[in-house]
């Protein structure tokens, strides 16, 4: 038609592009789902380090330095990223914050701002779709699958990080994170090992492989700590306590306690439990580098432990047969009870009729003792008048319930005066 043009219609500004993470993984697009930067940092480079180690002799001094630097950088994550910035379980002085920011940077796990923001989201939305590394999506996903696959950040639960944005150390580390990673992750390990002329060993062992082990240890908090162990404080969510996880994570393995009491600077509350991060923070407090170390009151902690024990007892109790519930028993008149007791061994204890016919020969006190209460109210006899019976006896008697007496307990005692009136 005259006057027509081939100009395409304008796009709808309100239609947003679908994030790759929200599309299914196929053989054609799987490479688009992969976060290649993270794969390089946590898979390919460590793989290179493992291969290079075959041609790089491990010297004793370098091995000792690598282990020492491992603990230093891991402490930057557990005491810095986790307990200081993510949970504010204590207050650190400026020098300590700078040291922790540098140490954590050497672990190559993202900036304090990024790490703490995701971890707060994890606590607020544990085991839900908004949990960045929910173990319900699989232990591999929780360990590091969530990092090697692209994620839609809009899917993560919202958290408040205004305090992190107000911390100049956090802001400085976030802005210069790549420089800090290169310096603390690789340069420092090489330079120190260079003091004994083992630059290459420092690069491979104290640098690359040490980073790999620190990363894997931290990842265990997201996976192993939500899969292995016990739940002494709450079992509604996945966090668990286990000494193996604690050993692998600088004391972060008492994770059930931590999720219940996240602002406590401790993960382990018993002196014999392994938590070097707690001990480090306590020592810093003694020399004035840390203050306001937060601890939940023992009374509140024991409440949680007792409530969980009660839940376990209730579940176990529900599995056992406690006899017919009283509410389901028929109501029997006293006269009917007396009449039926003439042909079958029935006794009344606490207003409940019990059929003890099949128990006569098994009674430990002898058949005659139990026959003395047949057709009568044997409450006093059962509860100490003749013998104070054990819990086992009470439980066994509950299995013999057949009815409840109209009028309740000690009927024979109060009905007789009524008849005399």
Automatic annotation (TrEMBL):
PROSITE patterns: CYTOCHROME_B5_1, CYTOCHROME_B5_2, FATTY_ACID_DESATUR_1. One of its GO terms (biological process) is unsaturated fatty acid biosynthetic process. It catalyses: octadecanoyl-CoA + 2 Fe(II)-[cytochrome b5] + O2 + 2 H(+) = (9Z)-octadecenoyl-CoA + 2 Fe(III)-[cytochrome b5] + 2 H2O. It is found in: Membrane. The chain crosses the membrane at residues 36-55, 62-82, 94-116, 177-196. Its EC number is 1.14.19.1. The keyword Metal-binding applies. InterPro entries: Acyl-CoA_deSatase_haem/ster-bd, Acyl-CoA_DS, Cyt_B5-like_heme/steroid-bd, Cyt_B5-like_heme/steroid_sf, Cyt_B5_heme-BS, FA_desaturase_dom, FADS-1_CS. Its cofactor is Fe(2+). Residues 342-406 form the Cytochrome b5 heme-binding domain. One of its GO terms (cellular component) is endoplasmic reticulum membrane. Belongs to the fatty acid desaturase type 1 family. Stearoyl-CoA desaturase that utilizes O(2) and electrons from reduced cytochrome b5 to introduce the first double bond into saturated fatty acyl-CoA substrates. This is Acyl-CoA desaturase. It comes from Aspergillus kawachii.
């Amino acid at each position: 038609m005259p006057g027509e043009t081939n100009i395409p219609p304008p796009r709808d500004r309100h239609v947003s592009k679908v994030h790759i993470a929200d599309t299914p993984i196929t053989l054609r697009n799987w490479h688009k789902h992969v976060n290649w930067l993270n794969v390089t940092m946590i898979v390919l480079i460590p793989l290179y380090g493992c291969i290079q180690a075959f041609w790089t002799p491990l010297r004793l001094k370098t091995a000792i330095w690598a282990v020492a630097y491992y603990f230093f950088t891991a402490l930057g994550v557990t005491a810095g990223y986790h307990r200081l910035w993510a949970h504010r379980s204590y207050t650190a002085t400026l020098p300590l914050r700078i040291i922790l920011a540098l140490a954590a940077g050497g672990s190559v796990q993202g900036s304090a701002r990024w790490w703490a923001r995701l971890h707060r989201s994890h606590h607020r939305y544990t085991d839900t779709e908004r949990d960045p590394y929910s173990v319900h999506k699989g232990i591999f996903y929780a360990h590091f699958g969530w990092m090697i696959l692209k994620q839609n950040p809009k899917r993560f639960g919202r958290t408040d990080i205004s305090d992190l944005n107000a911390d100049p150390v956090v802001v400085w580390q976030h802005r210069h994170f790549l420089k800090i990673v290169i310096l603390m992750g690789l340069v420092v390990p090489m330079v120190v090992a260079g003091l004994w002329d083992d630059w290459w060993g420092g690069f491979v062992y104290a640098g690359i492989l040490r980073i790999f082990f620190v990363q894997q240890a931290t990842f265990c908090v997201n996976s192993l700590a939500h899969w292995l162990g016990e739940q002494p404080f709450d079992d509604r969510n996945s966090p668990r306590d286990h000494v193996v996880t604690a050993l692998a994570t600088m004391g972060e393995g008492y994770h059930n306690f931590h999720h219940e009491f996240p602002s406590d600077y401790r993960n382990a509350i018993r002196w014999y439990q392994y938590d070097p991060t707690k001990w480090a923070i306590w020592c810093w407090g003694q020399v004035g580098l840390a203050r306001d170390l937060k601890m939940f009151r023992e009374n509140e902690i024991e409440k949680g432990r007792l409530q969980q024990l009660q839940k376990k007892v209730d579940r176990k109790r529900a599995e056992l047969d406690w006899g017919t519930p009283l509410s389901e028993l028929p109501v029997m008149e006293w006269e009917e009870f007396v009449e039926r007791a003439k042909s079958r061994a029935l006794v009344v204890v606490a207003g409940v009729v019990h059929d003890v016919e099949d128990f006569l020969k098994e009674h430990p006190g002898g058949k005659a003792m139990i026959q003395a209460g047949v057709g009568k109210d044997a409450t006093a006899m059962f509860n100490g008048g003749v013998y104070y019976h054990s819990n086992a006896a009470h439980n066994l008697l509950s299995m013999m319930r057949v009815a409840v007496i109209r009028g309740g307990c000690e009927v024979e005692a109060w009905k007789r005066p009524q008849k005399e009136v």
